[in-house]
C-alpha cells in the first residue's frame, strides 16, 4: 500500500468507495470536486493505493480558521473499503493528515463522526482523538 496525493485519475475509485459508504457520487461528480480541491494549499486529499488492487481508501482534510477557537486541521472525509478494514489503511491515512497539518504549523486536528458510524468511534479514539461534544447537524437546501 502506498499513501499518496490524490489525482483526477483516482476519481472512479473515490466515487466507488464513497458510494459504497452511502454517499452516492458519480465519477463526474468526483472529478468536478477534485478539480476544485487539488492544488489548494489549505486542502489535502490523499489515497491509499493498493498497487494493482485499486484504491483501498481516501482521506480529505482542510485547514480551518474559526473566529471562536482559532486555527486547526479538520478531517472532512475518510473512507476505507470494507475489505481493507482493520489492516492499517485508515491509520496510515490519518498519519498522512497529521504530517500535512504539522508541516503547516497546525497544533490540532478535529474530526466529526456520524453517531450512526459505530465502528468509527473506537477507531478515532485509538488514533488518539478524544470525544469533546455531541451535536446536531442541520441542512437547509437553497433552491
TrEMBL record:
InterPro entries: Acyl_CoA_acyltransferase, Bact_Acetyltransf, GNAT_dom
Keywords (A to Z) from UniProt: Acyltransferase, Transferase
Entry-linked CDD domains: NAT_SF
Gene3D superfamilies, per the entry: 3.40.630.30
Domain N-acetyltransferase span(s) in chain numbering: 1-143
UniProt cross-references to Pfam families, sorted A to Z: Acetyltransf_1
Protein name as it appears in the record: GNAT family N-acetyltransferase
Organism: Marinobacter halodurans
Native organism taxonomy: Bacteria, Pseudomonadati, Pseudomonadota, Gammaproteobacteria, Pseudomonadales
